[in-house]
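ok so I'm stuck.
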Amino acid sequence: MGSFLLNICITLATLSFVLGVETGNEIIKGRVSNEDGDVLPGITIMLKGTSKGVATDFNGEFELGGLDEGTFVLVISGVGYSTIEHSISIKRGELYDMNIEMEEENTHLEEVLVIGKSIEQEKREQPIKVEVINTKKLQAQSISLPQIINQTSGVKVRQAGGVGSATTININGLQGNAIRFFKDGIPLDYLGRAFDLSLIPVDQLSNIEIYKGVLPVKLGADALGGGVNFITDQNIRNNLGASYSFGSFNTHQFNLNGTFVIPKTPLFASVSSYYVSSDNNYRLEVPVVDENRNQVLREVERFHDEISTIYSELKLGIVDTKFADSWYVNGSFFDLEQDNQNNILLSIPYGEAFSTERTYIGSSRYQKSFDRISVDLFGAYSNRNTQFIDTVNVRYNWFGEREREFEGIGGEISETGSNQDLIFKTWTGRMYLTYDLNEKHQIYFNHNIISEKRNGSDPRAPTLPNSDVDPLSLTATYRRNISGFGVSSSFLGDRLRSEIAVKRYELFTSSVIPFSFDGEVLDFSNVNYGAASSFKYSFNDRRYLRLSYELATRIPDSEEYLGNPSEFILANPELTPETSHNINLGLYANLGKSNRYWLDLNTFYRYINDNIFLIPGLVTSQYRNQDDARSIGAEFGINGEIVKNLNFTSAITYQDIRRVNIQDVSNLLLDGARQPNTPYFFTNFHLRYRKKNLLDLSGEWQFYTNYGFTEKYLLESVSQSQEPSIFGSVGNITDLIIPSQHVVDAGITYRFEKLPIWLNAELNNVLNSEVFDRFRVQRPGTNYRFKIRYQLN
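replied:
not stuck anymore, here's the structure
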């Protein structure tokens, strides 16, 4: 695993502090961290030529006392890190406080694996398949989370437009809501859009975990074989970070994070916040009617797609006490306003409709490890208010012009318009327990409950038939309970490791049946069970096989049941949960004797029953159970160091997703057809070069570029006989094809040597390629971003 090349940024703060006139009474204190700001315990600090020295404690801190006046050389070293020699002159009566930063050294992985591994590497090597992205290394970049995740094999994120637009993530052929999202292991339901993939800055996270196949019991949620866990910084230490970026389409992003530990106490306070805004006024081609009443393609500007959002949280807590290893209470606030530019198919423009969301959140978490038992308790309540405003009875064209105005009450999206106001009250609870039976076996239990009640009003919406009752005023209830019990074991001297689990899924919903004549309320409940097993066999420290199977259940979330008018999604209270059989088989190994290149190969099979899809209409859409689906595929990744300081990662993914067991007689010809609106072949190649002291600037430079390719895929299903072959011609179904796409991004980052400041410039879609996502919605062409980041630890 490489070691760390040093970049030391030492600040000698000399304070007038009288320690006495005796010799041998001077002190050097300090703190050691890596380039990401993570503290490094177990680092040795020695006085060269002597046996005097200390090691950093759990917080990465050290104190070396009993020193005389004079000049000394400190030797700072640790396993996997470069050895530092720093000269320091000590004067009587002065206290020396040092901040030492260490970086990875380029030694072979096998030399480090014998002794220890990073937390990220430990997670990657679990029996359950998981990709771990260290986002701390990317925080200086003005990169978005979808861009980061798209560089991972087997994963594809797609957006319906610019900043803040709806996103869909595909993992091994499963997509949309079949993939669950978490923050620090907790399902995101209570946060609304506050941790939306399309909004959250990379600065808010330290890691991203992407699970493929089995979802571990620890996460305690339902998913069909995929999950994304956003990990925030868990190190409680004094720090302050801020960043600001701006770019094309009047896009601005500000981020502020900080933690203050009250000296000589276990108390701490932290703040985490961000602000994002964008006009999203990029240009795209859309069909318009010309002066001869012919439909032609014209390049226009998105004129009504602004977004503005702010998020802030304050956390107060204690750490490392007899009462708790960690306990905090948290208060958060989120506010969003977003214009609605078009329908889901990009065929109708809107000029005045908009939506808002405002959320107040309170939460608390308690963690404590006893002799063999560990306890993790979490609870949260959120009050989320969403509004959807469509009260102007007009029609706009794609040039931002009012074409028609109508008399009377109405809207530009619907005949009656909308002035909708909804309140979502959400309770989330989680209990996670582990018990160590012995060194080889551990059992664990997790239970999650998510309960949501929705009330609201829309004076413009149709009332229930034969009454004047607003259907939104009637309470809609949604509740799901997920329980899991598992056992992890190791055998054959840790060469064989396993995790076996059983899960229980319970759902209850209660809501008015749409368009019912008497306001009939439909109550629906369902209980399902699942099981999972994962195995990993290590041939040695550099090669292992991994096999997993899961019978998974995914309960539709509240939006799928109750609808989302701001996204023009109709309710469907008659949905049934979808289930899936998931199998993963993978190999991880080094290539050659140098250990410079690493191969990650994963194959997968999925069979999904009662597959749920968002079915688009001209204005509204609806989630429905659509047939079954079968997905089979493979993902292939290689990464390593080409030459010193020049690293690469590459990924190739192929997934064959087919509609099967079609019940609708009118669609029997589509049995076995490729699943529509889903990429099936995509690749990614990333290069990064690091250089110090370039152009007479004594800092660190990083140059990086990324190339992504997506093969053409179908917008709608066609029979297998009509499907174009991979890289082949499309024949006579051009209108049903989302074309092949080539996207190149490039950037440069500079870090000052003696200042905790980073500068970044990034150019996206360098080739100005036509890029399409979701239902053939065009994404931005060439665009730029600049960023400045400050981080003090």
